[in-house]
Amino acid sequence: MTGFTGGLGGQVALVTGAARGIGRGIVVALAEQGADIVLNDLRPEPDADEVTVAVRALGRAAASSSARTSASPLRCHGSLPRPRDLSAVSTS
Q1: Is the model's pLDDT at 75 over the cut of 60?
Q2: Most Cβ neighbours (<10 Å): which of 41, 51, 60, 77?
Q3: Which residue segment(s) compose the domain that 22 sits in?
Q4: Residue 86: pLDDT above 70?
Q5: Is residue 21, in this structure, part of any structural domain at all?
Q6: How far apart are CA 64 and CA 71, in angstroms?
């Protein structure tokens, strides 16, 4: 993330479309800035597994989920259970 000077340590990012393409790039950029990541994609495997490994290699927590999200950020057509490997990360 060129020009970004703040750190994201202690933050958790939920990235949709995270297994491939732009979403994957966003995941890596956020993890490089210190964010822990929850990856969401309609078809997460095996691509999401590879991205999860890349995030963990950067020393960040990562988990993946598969849920359909609508165009509205306030609605979700699936459930995003709290991933076990992010249970110690504060979301407040």
Answers
A1: no
A2: 51
A3: 12-69
A4: no
A5: yes
A6: 20
C-alpha to C-alpha distance for 65 and 38, rounded to whole angstroms = 7
Distance CA 76, CA 90 (A): 22
CB under 8 Å to 35, separation ≥6 — which residues?
Answer: 8, 9, 11, 12, 13, 60
Q: Look at residue 38 and tell me if it is in a domain.
A: yes
Q: Is residue 43 part of a domain?
A: yes
Residue-wise pLDDT tens digits, 3-61? 455 688 889 999 988 988 999 999 999 999 999 999 888 876 788 889 999 999 999 99
As given in the structure block, the two tokens for residue 32 are: 């490089």
**Paired residues of 28 in beta bridges:** none
Q: Is residue 80 part of a domain?
A: no
Which residue, among 37, 26, 32, 34, has the nearest Cα to 80 in the 3D structure? 37
Of residues 84 and 44, the one with the higher pLDDT is 44
**Number of domains into which the chain is organized:** 1
